[in-house]
Design a protein that fits this description.
Elements: H1 3-18, H2 25-28, H3 32-45, E1 50-54, H4 62-68, E2 72-77, H5 80-93, E3 98-102, E4 115-121, H6 129-139, E5 140-151, H7 156-164, H8 178-183, E6 188-196, H9 212-229, E7 239-247, H10 249-258
Parallel strand pairs: 1-2, 1-4, 2-3, 4-5
Antiparallel strand pairs: 5-7, 6-7
Length: 259
């Protein structure tokens, strides 16, 4: 295994075993709007579909999609611990159609046009984007979609927090830049993005206090209005929902073989 992949595996094995992210769980309590966006897409597209979830564990959305009627959900993760925990939960809850494998997302071991839906939360920023997006495009069927929630790299306050908490992430993580999304057009004909969490980030320290949910909703609504009025500010959001469609890799390979 390459050094980068080995470091990611070791870090996430420890994270799943020790619950490393729990110490910053209050930040994730403001994320209902982006997770609602993500799950709405899954709810619409996963019934009857063959799905690949990249990055999974016992809190994976694979179980949500299995209950919604996905034909099959293949969950992959580089962490052996994450896969073991996912398999244990699947056995415990007896949800059919779920398969979990340890696999490197930069080198997917699936055939071309394998999936109707590919998804993941906070996973692409751990990967070599060109390698990962090539394989996502290759394995996504024509007419299929791929959806991800990913952190962005442009907010100076968020970046300061990242520098102050290096133990919470691996050295190879790289929150996405806007140019990364432009580069992704090599692999997909259509890319739709929705930004989340700018001023709503300020609510994180108040998690659990009276009226917290109502205030987060108000800030989320204000953020969406601001992003609409001033689209440039979207780059300073914490999180972006990204929907890829119209995969190009398979078409390029077919075009080359026909010439």
């Amino acid at each position: 295994m390459e050094t980068k992949q080995r470091k990611e595996q070791e870090f996430h094995d420890a994270a799943f075993n020790q619950g490393v992210r729990r110490q910053v769980s209050r930040f994730y309590l403001i994320m209902d709007s982006c997770h609602g966006f993500y799950r709405s897409h899954l709810r619409t597209h996963c019934p009857g579909s063959r799905v690949l979830e990249i990055g999974c564990g016992q809190d994976s959305n694979a179980f949500f999609m299995g209950k919604l009627g996905a034909a099959e959900v293949c969950g992959i993760d580089i962490s052996n611990v994450a896969i073991a925990q996912a398999e244990q939960r699947a056995a415990r809850e007896q949800i059919g159609g779920l398969k979990f494998s340890v696999m490197d997302a930069e080198n997917l071991k699936f055939g071309d046009d394998s999936f109707d839906l590919i998804c993941g939360v906070a996973i692409l920023h751990h990967l070599d984007l060109d390698k990962a997006l090539f394989h996502i495009s290759r394995t996504l069927r024509p007419g299929g979609t791929a959806i991800f929630l990913e952190p962005l790299a442009h907010n100076p306050i968020v970046n300061l927090y990242r520098r102050l908490t290096p133990s919470l992430r691996t050295e190879d993580e790289h929150p996405l830049l806007m140019r990364d999304l432009e580069n992704a057009r090599k692999y997909f004909g259509k890319i739709d993005t929705t930004a989340f969490h700018l001023f709503s980030l300020a609510m994180a320290p108040f998690a659990g206090m009276p009226g917290f949910d109502r205030l987060v909703h108000l800030f989320d609504t204000s953020d969406q209005l601001l992003f609409k009025i001033a689209p440039y500010l979207r780059r300073f959001a914490w999180t972006m929902g990204i929907v890829f469609s119209e995969p190009k890799v398979r078409k390029a390979a077919q075009s080359a073989s026909s010439n």
